[in-house]
Write a structure and sequence with these properties.
This protein is mostly helical and 183 residues long. It is built from 7 helices and 2 strands; from the N terminus they run αββαααααα. It has a two-stranded antiparallel ribbon with strand order 1-2. β1 and β2 form a beta hairpin. α2 (34-41) packs antiparallel against α3, α4 (65-93) runs antiparallel to α5 and α6 runs antiparallel to α7. The chain is elongated, with a radius of gyration of 21 Å. The N and C termini lie far apart (44 Å).
Length: 183
């Protein structure tokens, strides 16, 4: 009887421990505090943008670190897709051959970024945080390369430069979170 009680007690404790652990992380799954969001954001390219952006999503308040990665990826995908639509319009409507060529290059860069962000989602789902880090870095290359193509005249009169900076900052958030997830 005593041995059975010990076995049941041990199984119950193990069950309770497993309930409290996020199996994909292998560590407790706990909601992040505002201070932890601040700490993560302090390691990004633009900490104030990071805090404002993450806090603008109501899911952040209840998110753990893995959830915050998903939120950040969702935001980056939405930004990349919106900017890709803008770029398509700019390619179609540009009368300046130099600008049109640069916009076409940016369209390719953004297609690659969107593919990399899709891979980020897969990396989070599989718990492969090294891959998440690599894919977030690859996603960041799109807007950076796009912006670099406008170093010389003519100047881009559109919203593309600011939208590219936004995506770069969003990818920086994913990178900071991936580093935390890697440990």
């Amino acid at each position: 009887m005593g041995c059975l009680l010990i076995q049941i007690s041990s199984m119950l404790m193990m069950f309770l421990l497993l309930i409290n652990i996020d199996s994909s992380l292998g560590r407790p799954s706990t909601k992040l505090s505002g201070n932890e969001v601040q700490e993560i954001c302090s390691t990004t390219q633009n900490p104030s943008f990071c805090v404002q952006t993450l806090n603008s999503d109501p899911r952040t308040a209840a998110a753990d670190l893995k959830g915050l990665a998903g939120i950040s990826i969702d935001m980056a995908k939405a930004s990349a897709k919106e900017t890709a639509t803008l770029i398509s319009s700019l390619v179609e409507n540009s009368s300046d051959p130099k600008l049109k060529g640069r916009y076409q290059t940016c369209a390719e860069n953004y297609d690659d970024s969107i593919d990399s962000l899709d891979d980020c989602t897969k990396s989070v789902s599989s718990g492969d945080y090294n891959s998440l880090n690599f894919q977030a870095s690859a996603a960041m290359d799109g807007p950076v390369t796009c912006l670099d193509s406008f170093d010389g005249p003519p100047k881009d009169p559109s919203q593309l430069p600011s939208k590219s900076e936004d995506l770069e900052h969003l990818c920086s958030i994913i990178l900071a979170i991936s580093k935390r997830l890697i440990g």
